[in-house]
Protein 1
Amino acid sequence: MRYWLILLAVLLGAGAAAGLRLREFNQFAPLEPVALARCEPVKGIAGPEDIEVDEAGSRAFISSLDRRVGAPDGVRGAIHVFNVDDPLSASGWRDRTGGVPEAFRPYGLSYFEEGETRRLFVVNEAANAVELYEVAENGDLNHLETFAERRLTSPNNVVAVGPRQFYVTNDVRPGRNAPIADLHFLMNIGSGEILYVDGDVWRVAAEGLRFANGLALSKDGLSLYAAETAGNALKIYERDPATGVLALSGTIPLGASPDNINVDGAGAVWVGALPKPLAVPRLARDADATAPSEVLRIGPDGAAHTVYRNDGGEQSAVTVAARVRNKLLIGALYEEKFLFCELPPSVR
């Protein structure tokens, strides 16, 4: 009798925990749409998962891969350069990597500029690595080197802090394509990490994150923002620029699952987020399926404000929002387009 009581208690506890997680992921909650006044779709770039802005150059680097057909040994990804002042320029649809490396599945991006040095760091899922490119004046990319290490099992996003220095997220230690990765996500297991790379030296800078995803640096370089996707939160770390050491200083609840992060010229933080993340896996199998999208802005008050929310009909499963002056570029994991939107004066 005691055995059955224990088993019943376990089952009830598991059911209650599962119900709580479904509520945390807004699975049954209605979503109130929030629209931007004017958004134009820019078509022809598959899977624009991350967008990184070079505001001085009025351009944006876009990570691209058709993830429905791009198996590990299949279709190669690309990096595109979108000219904000000339949106119809044909050069925006050309891959800038020169075909290097051959196996290339890009995720997160980070643009670095210091003096005459212009570089782009790109997470390459195909090699569990970070690729480093030199950026030419016209936006073409010259491959310089590949950073890889045995602890980098599931790289997701990167943020540069020097010409060969960067932070990179390991979203879940077993690897996001491992069967157990879904369990880590659903059960809120903190196996995510942030690794710091100082040239040839690697070390763990932060751990215990619940699916470590997007990264961004504050304008003064003293704070690092990290998206905790399974935790519906943005982590803020104090950063020692001399050593790269991180110390957790705050957490901002978002009410949605954050993906990539960008900091604009005024220091505001832009987050591409998934209000209902459990709807996303279906997109990989069904090109007609949609998943809701959200964009949040975190300003000087430190609170997250929704500037865009959609049921997925306009842009499904948004993963990134990047501001360039009075424009906002909104990308997504499985779409074949990104949105080019006009920002109202209230959020510029």
Protein 2
Amino acid sequence: MIPAAPDPAPDDPQENRMSRPPRPARTAAAAALAALVLTGCSAGGGEQAAPQEGSSGSPAVPLVEPGVLTVCSESNYPPFEMEQDGEMVGLDMDLGREIAADLGVEMKNVTLAFESIQSGAALDTGQCDVAISALSITEERQTVMDFSDPYYDNELGLVTDGEDGPASIDAAREQGARVGVMQGTLGEDQAAELGLEAVQFEDATTMFTDLGTGGVDAVLDDVTAISEHSKDNADFVLRETRDVDDQLGVAVRRGNEAMLAQVDATLDRIEQDGTRERIVETWIPVREN
């Protein structure tokens, strides 16, 4: 789920958009983590429920609950997070488990409304240690939370139920089509910027269900989510895609340098050992051009 960003022209229109984004070197992050471990520094930042230091893993990284990495996510945004057989699974959940493993603790998922996650409220009030919920790294969000290095790129797309809906974003505007968007995401911001008649949803499943039942004429959302929901509805048609400068990151409470360094160190490790590629290809199979 991706918040607003400018639309840069891609260097290579044939580039595989489901591949992982190039990542900046994390030697500084790893060094920062090592320094924090040696000095026993704790995270700074604003007021929140007092975190407790983990019972295992790095003593420099305080945790909301001892011995547990608590991860906030939306309850249902496949393939990033979703419930299967009573367990939360998905790309973001696998990523959270890798971070927990490097801390030497278990992972616990807490599902919340997306607004409380992307606003930073969940982190500020100590409901979780990290937020991993397909959060895009934006300047606005960086005023209320700190972000890791990016772990995924995405695109924006317009999808209709069959061929009768608007054939493009411009057509949707000209026809006054009702376009479903997720609150707090790129789709919502872009719909406003493009002059579309937007219908807001708090839950992606409800939004795509409404598309299938005619509640909305089209949906503007990230291509990954569209592809996932299209698996269950063969009539969904991706009418247009738009490249956006969007990268997803793991969020931590603003000023929590110890946790941020740990997250970046884990991202560096799974990039180097191939775990990240395996996770992404498990949940988002690479598209053939």
